[in-house]
Specification:
Helix content: 25-40%
Radius of gyration: 22 Å
CATH topology of the largest domain: Rossmann fold
Number of domains: 3
Number of strands: 22
CATH class of the largest domain: Alpha Beta
Oligomer: single chain
Length: 435
């Protein structure tokens, strides 16, 4: 082990132990009281410095002090679409943001939101607490098959990011492989790099991991010699449980799933004993039906329990969780997540492009509020950009420049601006749909 990974592990281990002690010592029956008390501490600041909630309190539509769950439920639910339209009113103005992030996902409706550095510091111990379920240490070598949005940028920021990933990641024992192009040729290259790099665990988009295992099934013996601790899926679920079992068979190790979004950070993680354990120290999670009533299986609502530049209060991600276990109405464990499905854009029968690749190329434009790709039977694709303002030729040229870096054929797609995107009968907007 080199010095830097050793120091990183030494620094995080005491924090992980504190997380373990907290979760092990807190009785299930006391979870909700703990969460309400913590929420009240940040609620005092939120109602003062976040215009949207300040207005609700002043108009006496919500309580100034939350004493129980019934009062907590008076707070309105917020979804990504609402946040997109009202982000200025949902930001904590007590101090300036340190950075801005953009969500990805399969909806084609990216949300730009602010954050503070303290948010990452607050959540990092939880990341290594759940990875410890699989005996992963911060010093372990990791191979990650993921998006490479830093390569799609421009100017000084692009080169700073590239320097970080080309020099910074190897120094801490991490190797990153692009998941944008998941052709057989690229996946064979990834398999070879895994064998040569000798990681202790692998993290990647869940469906990309299945494709990786399928294309490299003949390397099963070589993968088993690596003695991997776990292969960890993220950003989406597996199509079926057999896919998860197949990955486990090829790589010779358990397969887990982390549950997080860009704006919420880690929410829950699978445990080797089964199901998902919720990180309820940082998040109050509710499960409700279509009418907003408590349910054992249904829509997930997230409330963050630490200070944020963009506070999340009863925030609806758009996912469905099933088989919940609760203290009162606070979920501390559930069986499965449904609803997240990042499909692939097939440039040809051998070249699938992951949805995140498209999102990362488009999200740089602040004019675009959402996008959709429609295709014909003969695989002719058109990109539709939703925007309330004019999209100029320069804007389109910049998007095509980023798409070109993923695959030159993407830059040849026609791009059109529209006021609204096509929705399903259920009112959902898919990022990829047939004409």
């Amino acid at each position: 082990m080199s010095l830097l990974p050793y120091l990183r592990e030494k620094n995080i281990r005491p924090k992980v132990r504190k997380e373990q002690e907290f979760y092990n010592n807190m009785e299930v029956g006391k979870i909700t009281n703990y969460q309400i008390n913590v929420f009240n501490q940040i609620w005092e600041t939120i109602q003062t410095h976040v215009p949207y909630y300040n207005d609700l309190v002043n108009k006496r539509k919500v309580p100034k002090i939350i004493t129980n769950f019934e009062e907590f439920k008076k707070l309105p639910t917020i979804d990504r679409s609402f946040a997109n339209q009202h982000i200025k009113e949902l930001i904590d103005r007590s101090k300036k943001p340190d950075s801005w992030g953009t969500t990805g996902g399969s909806t084609g409706n990216p949300l730009q939101y602010p954050s503070w550095k303290t948010e990452t510091q607050e959540c990092e111990p939880a990341v290594w607490y759940v990875r410890d379920f699989y005996n992963i240490k911060r010093s372990d070598r990791m191979f990650r098959i993921w998006g490479h949005s830093h390569t799609l940028g421009s100017g000084l920021t692009k080169y700073k990011n590239m320097l970080k990933f080309k020099i910074g990641l190897p120094l801490i024992g991490y190797k990153r492989f692009s998941a944008y192009d998941l052709s057989n040729e690229k996946l064979r290259d990834a398999g070879e790099q895994i064998i040569n790099f000798k990681p202790k665990y692998i993290v990647g988009y869940s469906k990309a991991l299945y494709m990786l295992a399928k294309v490299n099934a003949d390397r099963k013996t070589e993968f088993h010699k690596l003695n991997l601790k776990v292969v960890m899926g993220a950003a989406e679920g597996f199509d079926k449980n057999e896919d998860k079992n197949f990955i486990s068979e090829i790589f010779g190790c358990p397969v887990g799933l982390q549950y997080a979004t860009m704006e919420t950070k880690y929410l829950a993680h699978t445990h080797p004993d089964g199901g998902y354990k919720v990180l309820w120290r940082n998040n109050l999670i509710e499960c409700v039906d279509n009418e907003g009533n408590p349910s054992q299986s249904g829509r997930i609502l997230v409330t963050s329990l630490y200070p944020r530049a963009f506070p999340l209060i009863r925030y609806e991600i758009g996912d469905i969780i099933t088989g919940t276990e609760k203290n009162l109405e606070s979920v501390y464990r559930f069986e499965a997540v449904k609803g997240r499905d990042n499909d692939f854009l097939m440039l040809d029968e051998n070249t699938p492009i992951h949805s995140e690749g498209i999102t990362h190329a488009i999200k740089f434009s602040k004019k675009v509020t959402a996008y959709q790709i429609r295709y014909t039977k003969d695989l002719k694709y058109t990109i539709y950009l939703k925007s309330d303002v004019e999209i100029t030729e320069n804007d389109i040229r910049e998007i095509k420049h980023r798409l070109l870096k993923i695959d030159k054929r993407l830059a040849e797609l026609e791009i059109k601006r529209v006021n609204e995107l096509r929705q399903t009968i259920a009112g959902k907007t898919k990022w990829l749909t047939r004409e």
